[in-house]
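ugh ok so i messed up the first submission bc i forgot one of the chains. this is the corrected input, ALL of the components this time, i swear. 628 residues overall. if the numbers dont match what u have on ur side tell me asap before i send this to the collaborators (the ones from the other lab, u know who)
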Amino acid sequence: MATGFLTDTTVCIGCKACEVACKQWNQIPADGYELSGNSYDNTRQLSGTTWRHVAFIENPKHRRLTGDVDLVALAEDVREQLPGGAELDALGRWTFMSDVCKHCVEAPCQQACPTGAIIRNEFDNVYIQPDICNGCGYCVPACPYGVITQVPEDGRVFKCTLCYDRQRDGMEPACAKACPTNSIMFGEVEELKKVAEERITTLRAKGYSQAYVYGTPEVGGTGGIGGNHSKFILLDEPETYNLARHPFLPQAKVRGAFVTSAIAAGVLGAVVALAFRD
Amino acid sequence: MADATRETLQNRNGHPDNGRPETSHHTRTDPKRDEKGYYGVPPIKAAHWTWQIPLYFWIGGIAAGVQLFTTLANVLGHEDEALTRVGRYTSLVAMILSPILLIWDLGRPERFYNMMRVWKLRSPMSNQSWSLVMYGNLSGLLAVRQAAEDGLLGRNFLSRLLIQLIPAKVLSILALPVALFVGSNTGTLLSATSVPMWARNWAFMAPTFLASGVSTALSYLSLVLHLGRWGEEKTHTVLRRAERATILVEAALIAASLIRMGRWGKPLFSKEIAPLFVGGTLIGGIAAPLALLSGKETRNKSILTSVLVLLGGLAFRFAMVHGGRQSANDPEAYFSFASGENAPQPEDKV
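and heres the new structure output, hopefully the right one now
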């Protein structure tokens, strides 16, 4: 049984309850009080001490509201002709996205790990065994999402565990539990796939034709890493959320590098051997 | 409404920007918002590696090249005691320094032995650890035999037994592929990441590092033999000839790498790295030594050439590691790389 997240960004309200719940449950230290200037996002990015991060993306529109606009109707998702020719998006759209470890099916960090500290646990989640990791940091540049990060004070790397401890006790992860709008859904990956498809159908029926699922190899461009167990419902291009369009598996080319190395070794050996001729 | 506020608003009414929100995240006013990405936050994280890693790459490359040259000399019947001695002791010192540098760079150095829990062929870091263990042991045995021959262990029964028991030729032939693997794997280690500049060049990265390793090793041998006034005349002639040829191979591989990297190789020519890469590697480590090697040979010129090649190789490794950091921190580079055909795909042929 594989478990994972489905993060529906269309209902996220940017309350950051998931960030707080994650920090509290996992007892991760604070990151300090720095103001980033990036909208209301002072967390900035996922790190070894931030396993959930809410991105704030502002999409202001330049059209002005004219006439007698029913703001309540606007907020309630009404698509019919509005009085005064106002358009639904005229208020601008504010997108939030609660980012998390993608728990790749073919996880580059796991393949990079030389100690075997990064494993797939019984829930098919990518899990770092903290008692094994020796902080070589090789998984950090391997991750196609910049999730896994070394904590300098500790030396080891950390990332979302998908609340392995809570799952073992039959509970859902802290972030999903805390989410007030059910933007973060937790469950079996196969179930979540279906939920995501239904949600996309609903969204498209409402006129959000650009809605799509990120993290399913058949739909998005995540085939290079076999898809993700943490999926997202997105309205913008992946780059807007700092996600790669076609993440790739860096280790796919290790075998190729062996071959080119062997050829190079042969050529260099021949070149040096030729120098011994009288 | 407070008077002050009203005043401000009235003042702004005459302003040409009236009505435009003054937020820095406005699509039109904030140039960052027109770019792809999220406030310019790098979408991937760079490796934390400090100076120990490029220095290890350099030392590992020298060890590989020294093993290649001394083994070939041995196999091709060119016996030069001084060369063999320098080669064996160098390999041992390199194989003592390399693990120290690598363990130093770990976040939890006291747990270095966890590298020996598993062997994962797809993890260049794991392959590196194991190849260092193997080559370290082989070079250790060869150095012990050398020490016994040199009388460093005393002229006693034990020394004679060690010389009898350690089959030098077999061991050095066994050590050759392992040493070459150590040298090339330094490049594979970089290319098997999500960093655009490194990953793009997966085919030439390891060969370039190996070629640079061999050229630095030949220069190192030449330098040591010259400084000690050791070695036969023929050894010096061969070294010189081999040096010239490997520098040409290295230059060709660097050119191929730059072509392959394309736009993602830009960091190598950035303000911070260009002096190191263009000045240190391309001019100081390749062009100048080639010019020096083509003229008449003198001892001083050979020493200068060797020093230049060695420094050029060191600069190359620092440039590649730091260039990768810049590449990882550039959202545009990663997004353009991971947006379609550019990144390595599973169906790619070797």
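quick check: Chain A touches chain B through 80 residues (CB under 8 Å). that seems consistent at least. The domain at 3-247 of chain A is CATH 3.30.70.20 (Alpha-Beta Plaits).
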